[in-house]
Design a protein that fits this description.
By secondary structure, this protein is an alpha+beta fold. It has 2 domains: 4-93, no CATH class; 152-326, Transferase(Phosphotransferase), domain 1, CATH 1.10.510.10. The chain is built from 10 helices and 14 strands. The strands form 3 sheets. The chain has an 8-stranded mixed β-sheet with strand order 1-2-3-4-5-6-10-9, with helices on one face. A hairpin with a 5-residue loop joins strand 5 (72-82) and strand 6 (88-92). Helix 5 packs antiparallel against helix 6 (231-246). Residues 56-330 form the Protein kinase domain. GO terms for molecular function: ATP binding; protein kinase activity. InterPro entries: Kinase-like_dom_sf, Prot_kinase_dom.
């Protein structure tokens, strides 16, 4: 079977909606209909993905970039509209990659698993704090995940304001942490069912603009670390706690650029004050912001190179964060 066909065989309603859509009205070539998404790089703006009697018009593409790196288009994650209901979705097509990273003494193999993401989407159906979606199968057996976008913005985009860090810490962070508790509970739910999120990052939490609820997105990464099967998720949760507490990442360059810190603070830092996962990131934030209480700072130090004791479960982190909230200075 050819990977794509013409639009001639489309149902009448689908063909009409395709013709009338702003995307296809502006095109100088006819749309192609893809029933096989294996070669996703050939699928372009204005094409149609036909899967299990559903028809999705590709309207644009999502972008992603590691922090400090220009955003890159992800051709395997198009934005699309259902040509019957005219509902907007995000599609994730099958894309597999593998890479290694370091976690202290361990080398961790990370890889994309569309199958694992499909199982998580089924598991979290109807649960808060998780992006919702379903999985369809194309004519070649590829998994097409149909995701409902969260109407809102990334967590790391909404916590920044003109307020000082002190004002942020005392007046805004307790509310943010209370909402983040739901995200921690969600990862605990995955772990109890034998799943890892696999790619916990601050830009993988979206905040619903209407409800204020926090939602995890992007479940297709997994990792192989049989010695400590959930360790990478736990350390990445630590990264988010550190980022939220500091309202940013603090490396030596940020410290030197901050007129309230500079050389004196930098000289006070030793190797044990930095992150085990991201080794030039400061974890001992109490040295930067002395008003951070021990109850919170001690949580962060579990993720440092100087730690003797590490968290073994999300429940342990939850217990400590809840206790820190009860003892919040005010």
């Amino acid at each position: 079977m050819a990977p794509h066909t013409t639009i001639a065989g489309l149902p009448e309603e689908v063909a009409r909606n395709l013709r009338e859509h702003r995307v296809t009205r502006s095109m100088r070539r006819p749309s192609r209909v893809y029933t096989d998404t294996t070669d996703f790089t050939s699928i372009d703006y204005g094409d149609v993905i036909a899967v299990e009697d559903r028809f999705f018009l590709v309207t644009s593409y999502t972008k992603e970039g590691r922090f400090g790196v220009d955003e890159q288009i992800k051709p395997w994650v198009p934005k699309a509209v259902d040509l019957v209901t005219m509902t907007n979705y995000i599609l994730k097509l099958e894309f597999r990659e593998t890479f290694d990273m370091r976690l202290g003494q361990f080398s961790v193999t990370c890889y994309r698993s569309p199958d694992k993401e499909a199982r998580i989407l089924e598991l979290v159906q109807g649960r808060p704090h998780f992006m919702q979606g379903e999985t369809l199968v194309d004519a070649a057996g590829n998994l097409v995940r149909v995701l409902v976008p969260v109407s809102g913005n990334r967590l790391d985009k909404i916590i920044h304001s003109d307020s000082s860090h002190r004002d942020y810490f005392f007046n805004e962070l307790p509310r943010i942490f209370n909402q983040f508790l739901g995200c921690l509970e969600g990862i605990g739910f995955l772990h109890r069912h034998g799943f890892r999120h696999g790619d916990i990052r601050r830009d993988h939490i979206f905040v619903d603009r209407d409800t204020g609820l926090y939602y995890w997105i992007d479940f297709d990464y997994d990792f192989y670390l049989p010695e400590k099967p959930f360790a990478l998720d736990l350390f990445e949760l630590g990264n988010i706690l550190i980022y939220l507490t500091a309202r940013g990442d603090y490396h030596p360059r940020e410290i030197m650029a901050d007129p309230t810190m500079g050389n004196a603070v930098l000289r006070s830092l030793g190797p044990a004050d930095f992150s085990l996962l991201s080794q030039n990131r400061v974890v001992n934030l109490q040295k930067l912001f002395p008003y951070i209480p021990d109850s919170l700072n001690n949580i962060l130090l579990h993720f440092s190179t100087g730690a003797d004791v590490f968290y073994e479960s999300v429940e342990e982190i939850l217990t400590d964060v809840r206790q820190a909230l009860k003892q919040w200075p005010g």
